Amino acid sequence: MKAFYRLLYYLSILLTSILAGFTLAGAFAGDASPDSFTLMPFIGLILPVLLLANVVSAIYWTVRWRCWVFIPFIAILGNWGYLTRVLQSPLFDSASQPNTESLSLKKNERGTESALTIATYNVNSFNHEHTGFSCKGIAAYMKELGVDIFCFQEFGINHEFGIDSLRTVLSEWPYYYVPSSPAGESLLQLAVFSRYPIKEKQLVTYPNSNNCSLWCDIDINGQTIRLFNNHLQTTEVSRNKRKLEKELRADDTDRAERAALTLADGLHENFKKRAAQAEHINQLISASPYPTLVCGDFNSLPSSYVYQTVKGEKLNDGFQTCGHGYMYTFRYFKHLLRIDYILHSSEFQGVDYFSPDLEYSDHNPVVMRMRLCAHKGIQ
After folding, report:
1. 70-77 vs 2-26: helix crossing angle, rounded to 10
2. Could you read off the pLDDT of 352-371 as tens digits, one per residue?
3. Looking at domain 90-373, which CATH architecture does it have?
4. Quick one: pLDDT band at residue 174, thresholds 50, 70, 90?
5. Which residues fall within 8 angstroms of residue 189, CB to CB, at 6 or more apart?
6. Residues paired with 87 in a beta bridge
7. Residue 154, Cβ neighbours under 10 Å: how many?
8. With 0-12 CB in 10 A as exposed, 13-18 as middle and 19+ as buried, what is 16?
9. What digits encode the pLDDT tens for the residues 55-109?
């Protein structure tokens, strides 16, 4: 019996080390292109689960009072960069509520700055409602927050509640850009509604994808900013998961294995599509001559190559500059996924960043309050 317990002890050390190794690999997932590394994007995708498992491992070795507790601690600290993208002090402040300073933020506080509030929201086609209930509720909430620029992903329009009805509900934002799908394509629609005039604008489409991006130049009290609104390649996890569950219920091992391989292949193909889309957006961001805001549904975690590529060297993560608490934006998967973002260039000074807990979609919106500093030569 003593030999058996010793074997379990050594197996525990081995499993702890393997878990820590995969977790540390996740710290480098953002540097690994899916075209070159097949496994790394999957490790980055499950990094939140790996980190939680390391916390459990650390508790286990602490209770047993063994020195092996240093292994999960190293794995957790090795992912400090990821942790700062989902956790900010004060840690116990709710990330779904604005902080006190942002509540007092007023427009045009000083002559050298402009107060600005931007929101991004994947509204899931307003749940395909015919009455406009979701759209009306969202508009009322964002009006109360004082949102100046509102970016939508999956801005679904139906015949019963069409574009004219949507414009009426969103009349608080009189300037808008709702690009139509090119002939022969059916895109997941984007939209931007603004209190400020929209000048130049362009839709960005991607090969073999229903997802898209757009950019537009907006005149903020005489200063021009460039805004990017993105909805990068959809994961299709829910649809593929249903297929896998159907095959598992069939009690056929071969069919289940094929379904699992199909799911993995589909995920990897979407990893590569998102990576290519992120690289293209990064080029457009680099070419922007104006202060730049980048927002939207990236369908990627902060550990991913997509996040790192879009953010690049030019942008800051709004949550890291002025967020608080624990940040997630996807309402399912145990609140482990932050996949919606607002990024900004250095001309913006962050004041607050939060993600209200709304039930109108499978995503939560993201709201950022900031100040745009005046710079000579920016028009």
Report:
1. 10
2. 999 999 999 999 999 999 99
3. 4-Layer Sandwich (3.60)
4. very high
5. 152, 154, 155, 156, 157, 178, 179, 181
6. 326
7. 21
8. buried
9. 999 999 999 998 999 999 999 999 999 999 999 999 888 999 998 766 665 544 5
CB 178 within 8 A of CB 163: yes
User: What average pLDDT does the chain have?
Assistant: 90
If DSSP states are collapsed to H, E and C, what string results for 37-68?
CCCHHHHHHCHHHHHHHHHHHHHHHHHCCCHH
Cis-peptide into 90, omega within 30 deg = yes
Query: How many angstroms separate the Cα of 339 from the Cα of each of 59, 199, 335?
Result: 29, 29, 11
**Statement: residue 231 has pLDDT above 80:** yes
Structure tokens at 197: 């005039």
Q: Closest Cα partner for 189 from 124, 129, 136? A: 124
pLDDT at 238: 59
- The boundaries of every CATH 3.60.10.10 domain in the chain are 90-373
Say how many C-beta atoms besides its own lie within 10 A of residue 48's C-beta. Answer: 23
Q: Can you tell me whether residue 204 is helix, strand or coil?
A: strand
Mean pLDDT confidence for 324-347 = 97
DSSP state of 28: T
List of E strands, 154-211: 175-177, 190-194, 198-205
